[in-house]
Amino acid sequence: MPEPTTDTTPDTQSATPTGPPATANVHIADLFRRDGVTASFEFFPPKSAEAADSLYAAIADLEELKPSFVSVTYGAGGSTRELTTDLVLRIQRETPLHPVPHLTGVCHTPAEVDAMLEGYATAGVRNIMALGGDPPHEQGAPMGRRAGEQAFAHFRYGADVVRAIRAFSDTHLVESRRFGIGVGGYPEGHAATPNRLTEMDHLKAKVDAGADFIITQLFFDNHDYYDFRERCELAGIRVPIIAGIMPITSTKGMARMADLAAGSRFPAPLLRALRRAGDEPDLVRRVGLHWATEQCRDLLDHKVAGLHLYTLNKSKATREIYRTLGVKDSRALS
Question: Which CATH class for the 28-333 domain?
C-alpha cells in the first residue's frame, strides 16, 4: 500500500498501554455486521514531531466521519516497526477508532512477529493486515540485516504471515479474542507476479490460510475492481473485498502514486480532464476529487463491501468526498 517516506528523525515517545480501552477487541466481522458497508482510512507513521502534530490533527478531524476502522502502514523490511506500533497504540488508547496495523514478515523472525502480536493482543487490537512486504534497500536496512534472500528467510509470502497470525491466535488467544486478518488484493495485477492466474492462486492461498477480508491496492477504473471481484468469486474467494481509493490532489502526487503502486493504470478520460486543468493546482485537485468521489458513488451503487481511502495523513480530501457524496458520516454509506 502506498506510503510516502522521509529522511527525518522521529521524535516520539514509546506508548505503553495501561489496558484495553472500551472500544477494544472488536473483530472485523463485527464491524461488517454493524456497518453493512465499511469505510476506512489509511495512515502512515509520522517520522518527525511536526509530521506527528499534523497527523494527529487530521485524525481528530476524521473522527467525526466515524470510520469502521483505520489502518497504519509498515515500512519496507520493518523499517517503521516502532513508529507503527506507537501510532497504533496511541490511536487505540486515545481515540474511539479501531486501528488495524499492517504487519509484514520481511526481515523478521517468527519470535519477533509473535512478540508484536502479543503486544497488540494485550492492548486490545483485534485486527491485523498481513502483507508479504518489501525488503529494505541495503543502505536503509536495519542493523545486522540484509536485503535479498535473507530478508525472506522465514516469511516469503503473505500467506506465511497469515498462517503465523492464525497460529498465534489458535495457540494463545481464546476464540472470542482471536485476530481478524486482512490481506492485500491487486485489481490491476501485482508487479512481482505478471501471471494473473498465478496471482489469483496466491490470493486464494492467503484466504485459505485464514484471511477474513481483502483491501485492494488503489485503482482509478472501477471496471478493474468489478472484474477482480468476479475473478475472486470464480476462484472460490468468498471474503469481503474492500476497494482502495486514493484521490489525486496534485500532479506531483499522481507521479508519486505511479511509483508507489507500480502498474497503476490512469484511464484516458482522467488524463484528459487533468490535461484540461493544466498547471492550475486548484483545478487539478478538483478534477482528482471529482474522479475519486464518482468512483466511490459508483462502487456504492454496485454493492461494494467497503471503501478504503488512502489519506496521505491529511483530512481535507476525505471530508470533501463525504460532503459531495451527501453523507454526514460513514454510517450513512450503507
Answer: alpha beta
